[in-house]
Write a structure and sequence with these properties.
The complex is a heterotrimer of chains A (288), B (305) and C (297). Chain A has 288 residues and is mostly helical. Chain A contains eleven helices and two strands, in the order H-H-E-E-H-H-H-H-H-H-H-H-H. Chain B is an alpha/beta fold. Chain B folds into two domains: 130 residues, Periplasmic binding protein-like II (D-Maltodextrin-Binding Protein, domain 2, 3-Layer(aba) Sandwich), CATH 3.40.190.10; 136 residues, 3-Layer(aba) Sandwich (D-Maltodextrin-Binding Protein, domain 2), CATH 3.40.190. Chain B is built from twelve helices and 13 strands. In chain B, the strands form three sheets. Chain B has a five-stranded mixed beta sheet with strand order 2-1-3-13-4. In chain B, strands 8-7-9-5-10 form a five-stranded mixed beta sheet, with helices on both faces. The termini of chain B are far apart. Chain C has 297 residues and is mostly helical. Chain C folds into two domains: 43 residues; 247 residues, MetI-like (MetI-like fold). Chain C is built from 13 helices and two strands, in the order αααββαααααααααα. In chain C, a hairpin with a 7-residue loop joins strand 1 and strand 2. The termini of chain C are far apart. Chains in contact: A-B, A-C, B-C. Chains A and C meet through helix 1, helix 3, helix 4, helix 5 and helix 6 of A and helix 1, helix 2, helix 4, helix 5 and helix 6 of C.
């Protein structure tokens, strides 16, 4: 009798674990399918010309270099806004703030900001940067909008990095007579900086792949020349892919080019992600 | 000590950024001529711009963006574009808005289009009347059986409200009534064509330059272009029939326009003259549309002055 | 000034500087809300709020009568989100449970970065795959003539919400004190029984938070639904209908609307509704998470 009960428990367990494993395989299969499809169909379009030339004949020939260049520029502006502000806010939260209601409110705001839809950021960018501040549709407007969107990420990532610094570092400096700011400056920041930057790269990777915030604040599909200043419009990889897939005048013909753009975008974003993960892994090993 | 080492890196990074940013910030971007608007016209105008810039390398660069006729006209009203492409007339609301903002539009007709009604090549029908098309797109008729086709619900493809083609069809074929809410509103002409080619029960609309394969002169793969008759008694004509479009026998023909705010500036005027001249009109024909006729030529010349 | 006073001044300056950065998050959040509100309010000079929220007809450019009802859009958003979460939640929980309880640590080390890769795929690429891969597949599967519909969007959103659900659920399961599982095993329960009857209930608050955050992600997604759901304005009647979510509508119409018209303000009003919805979902998740943390202390 007891044996039967034990057997039943075992069968249920095996079945249950198989179910869980199926879930895992499902997720892995979907990811593999996505990457395989884009890799196979996009790989054919990739060539040196594709990566280094500008589009021709209404985007049906030529390459996507201006889009790569534009994405690079706008991500740079995003970084300039989001990284320092994120680090400073994290320093406040981790080093200075006490557990007050205000602090809880700040953390709540950060979590909510990361949940705001990207198109709402786009709306905000249009009102604030394009219209009120009169920056027009430009790299600056789009970069600032993306920067605000990335801010919750950089704050959280920087805070995680600061948390890993043991308190003994801070206490050591304070015991030697340093002020709080001096202690942070000499004993915390230099060690936390690499970790902070690693985390923010992940946020930048996400910003580089976003479309909705830049659609109405500066991204354009077909520009004859590269942007020469931050006040110019620009082409960008995610927006380029969107137009090629939906609004282009000869979708069937440019489908391979769209796949190629998707592949370049994925490689760029995943490359940044991987670089950040490897950096984080290396740092953790060094710390041990 | 560690901090000193990092300090050098930080200063170096700041200097590098300053070096990169200063010329970017200071260097005033070379002014481009902005052209925004109709998706129907974007391919045509992009190619016109490319050929124009090829022949005049010293000319100001031209950026041709899409967004739909409504977007282009809006940009003209908002002052964010030099030329607006639109495949329909300015609406009274838009003319009012222009009045309010002090915008005085000059409209140039640069090509003529036969707005084509397309179905999947598997559809046995060959012709519809204007009324039937209107009823279908209003949602009054929901099944192909009602117009002589197989018993299958009609799958509607269309554009979005920013499209001049959408608005033109609404005014001239739907008689200013609302579209059926079941229309799948695609982002551009090409998506409509892609959808109709894959969907046996589909009906869609697009400019004639999109539905004809320029290499073969036949409809694009998977499509059938319907003949349209003015009413049940009249003869149906195809939008690919140049004479029918010119004479007005094809009932859904329209001009494609470019508008500027006031007299076009020197750069824009030069481009416009290229388009309206023999070279430009040859490109118009090559891209599947029709060149402008005499009455438009006269109005255009007047507006250029 | 004495050296001491200079030091104190620098100290307070530093503290003030960091404080202003700290409250930046609140300022931005409030700023978004206020600007949205300010840009949405003028819409209601012409549109009655009741019509806005309860009418299913959205047709601002109609030559007959301009309609501004967002009920169809709300319904579309809800339909796509709910189905997405119904798909993603069990699968995500399953993967999380597997990683926390069954998998060898080496498997964990491999799978976790893979899930992060899934999270890193840009939404426009996912939408693109919805058009070229999932759409034709769905069309063939259901014998329909095209595959751009609510189901397509829901599946894609599920894929995008999975990493969030997996990682937060896994964290919650891992945070259950080992004494709980040890007690259960000591009393003769199998690992499976321990998982189902002890660990998951103990981690329930975290799991619910994961669920809500995944839902928030789905509600706010723009590009994926814009490309894959067909964008018909009608009120959705089934999963195989083409639908238009609130996010898609803003993205479609923002570029073509003349500034400072009723239509323009109405789009911001939709943005405001979206903002409130995602804020609400995040707030609930936050409260649930906090109750969970307090209980563990």
């Amino acid at each position: 009798m007891r044996l039967k009960q034990a057997a039943k428990k075992k069968i249920v367990q095996v079945a249950g674990f198989i179910l869980l494993r199926v879930c895992l395989y499902l997720v892995l299969a979907v990811l593999l399918l996505f990457l395989y499809d884009i890799g196979k169909k996009g790989g054919g379009a990739i060539s040196w010309e594709f990566l280094s030339q500008a589009p021709r004949r209404g985007m049906t020939e030529g390459g996507i270099f201006p889009a790569i260049y534009g994405t690079f520029l706008v991500t740079l502006v995003t970084a300039v806004l989001a990284i320092p502000l994120g680090m400073f806010a994290a320093i406040y939260l981790n080093e200075y703030a006490k557990q007050t209601r205000l602090t809880r409110l700040i953390r709540l705001s950060i979590r909510n900001l990361s949940g705001v839809p990207s198109i709402v950021y786009g709306l905000f960018g249009v009102i604030l940067f394009v219209n009120i501040l009169k920056l027009g549709t430009s790299i600056l407007s789009a970069g600032l909008t993306l920067g605000l969107m990335t801010l919750p990420w950089t704050i959280t990532a920087s805070e995680e990095a600061l948390k890993t610094i043991p308190n003994s570092y801070r206490e050591g400096a304070l015991a030697l007579g340093a002020t709080k700011w001096q202690a942070i400056r000499t004993n915390v920041l230099p060690y936390a900086l690499p970790g902070m930057l690693t985390g923010t790269v992940l946020g930048l990777a996400r910003a580089a792949g976003e479309t909705a915030p830049i659609m109405f604040t500066g991204a354009a599909f077909a520009l004859p020349i590269l942007p020469k200043s931050l006040g110019d419009q620009f082409m960008a990889l995610p927006y380029h892919l969107y137009i090629m897939a939906t609004q282009h005048h000869d979708i069937a013909r440019v489908r391979p080019l769209a796949y190629g753009t998707a592949l370049v975008l994925i490689v760029l974003v995943l490359g940044m992600n991987m670089a950040a993960v490897i950096l984080r892994y290396r740092l953790r090993r060094k710390r041990r | 000590m560690l901090y000193e080492r990092f300090k050098k890196w930080i200063v170096a990074a700041e200097l590098a950024m300053a070096l990169v940013f200063t010329p970017i910030l200071i260097g005033q971007g070379k002014k481009m001529i902005q052209i925004k608007g109709s998706d129907t016209m974007i391919n045509l105008v992009q190619i016109l711009a490319e050929e124009y810039m090829g022949k005049n390398p010293k000319a100001t660069p031209i950026a041709v963006l899409g967004g739909g006729s409504g977007t282009g006209i809006t940009a003209l009203i908002n002052g964010t574009t030099d030329i607006a492409n639109h495949s329909r007339d300015l609406s009274p609301k838009e003319t009012n808005q222009m009045w309010e903002r002090g915008v005085k539009p000059r409209v140039f007709a640069i090509a003529v289009d036969g707005l084509s009604i397309i179905v999947n090549e598997k559809n046995p029908l060959n012709q519809l009347t204007m009324d039937q098309v209107g009823a279908i797109y209003r949602g009054d008729v929901k099944n192909w059986q009602a117009v002589g086709g197989p018993a299958q619900p009609i799958s509607l493809y269309g554009r979005q409200s920013n499209s001049g083609t959408y608005a033109f069809l609404q005014e001239h074929v739907l008689k200013n009534k609302n579209y059926s809410p079941d229309v799948k509103e695609m982002n551009g002409n090409a998506q409509i064509i892609e959808g109709v080619a894959a969907d046996a029960a589909a009906i869609g609309y697009a400019g004639v330059g999109y539905v004809v394969d320029k290499a073969t002169g036949k409809p694009m793969k998977g499509l059938k272009i319907l003949n349209i008759a003015k009413d049940a008694k009249a003869q149906g004509y195809s939008p690919t029939d140049k004479a029918a479009v010119d004479s007005g026998n094809y009932p859904i023909s329209r001009a494609l326009f470019q508008s500027t705010n006031g007299k076009p500036g020197a750069d824009a005027a030069a481009f416009l003259q290229f388009i309206l001249g023999p070279e430009g009109q040859k490109i118009v024909e090559r891209e599947g549309f029709y060149p402008i006729g005499a009455k438009y030529i006269e109005a255009n010349t007047k507006n250029l002055k | 000034m004495t050296k001491q006073r200079l030091r104190n001044l620098k100290e307070s300056a530093a503290k003030a500087f960091f404080f202003t950065n700290g409250i930046l998050a609140i300022v931005v959040l409030l700023g978004i809300f206020v600007l949205l509100l300010a840009s949405a309010v003028p819409a209601f000079r012409e549109i009655r709020i009741k019509e806005f929220l309860t009418s299913a007809a959205w047709d601002p450019t109609s030559p007959v009568k301009a309609e501004y009802g967002i009920l169809s859009m709300i319904a579309s958003t809800v339909l796509v989100t709910v189905v997405a979460v119904v798909i993603a939640f069990p699968i995500g929980l399953g993967v999380a449970a597997y990683l926390s309880d069954v998998a060898h640590w080496r498997v964990r080390e491999i799978v976790k970065p893979i899930v992060e890769i899934l999270a890193g795929i840009p939404s426009v690429v996912v939408g693109f795959l919805g058009i070229v891969l999932l759409g034709p597949a769905l069309a063939k599967l259901f014998g329909k003539t095209h595959g751009l519909n609510a189901l397509n969007g829901a599946i894609l959103l599920a894929v995008m919400a999975l990493p969030t659900i997996i990682s937060i659920s896994e964290d919650s399961l891992n945070a259950v004190p080992s004494s709980y599982s040890e007690a259960s095993l000591a009393l003769g329960g199998s690992r499976w029984q321990t998982l189902i009857r002890v660990k998951i209930p103990a981690a329930l608050s975290g799991i619910i938070a994961a669920f809500m955050l995944g839902m928030g992600r789905a509600i706010g997604e723009t590009m994926t639904v814009l490309m894959a759901t067909g964008n018909a304005r009608a009120f959705p009647h089934g999963l195989l209908d083409s639908v238009r979510t609130m996010t898609s509508n803003i993205a479609i119409e923002l570029g073509e609307v003349p500034y400072y018209t009723t239509h323009y303000y109405a789009l911001f009003a939709i943005g405001l509704v979206l903002f409130i919805m995602t804020f609400g979902v995040n707030l609930v998740a936050d409260v649930v998470l906090r109750k969970y943390q307090e209980r563990e202390q």
